[in-house]
Amino acid sequence: MMIATTLLLGDMGWGNHMDNWGAGWWILMAFLMVVFWGLVIVGIVWLVRSLGWGHHQERGASAIELLDHRLASGEISPEEYRQRRETLSGETGGTDGN
Known about the structure:
With 98 residues, this protein is mostly helical.
């Protein structure tokens, strides 16, 4: 009985699941593979950027913190630091020019 059913189904075309797909199947699979690897690459780039690798300064750092960092690294002089800090804090210096 089992052999007869197998022969009947095989004769009706049930044994060939790729019937009449032709080249379309392979084009679809190639396209989906490109989409998959594109999403993997985009995901890795997003993950690296969201973790902040390669950035020298943290996001959301205040202007005063950035100024402190620049003074500590030697990018600006102490005099320039004082002037910029006064400007940022809204204070006026002792020398007014009058």
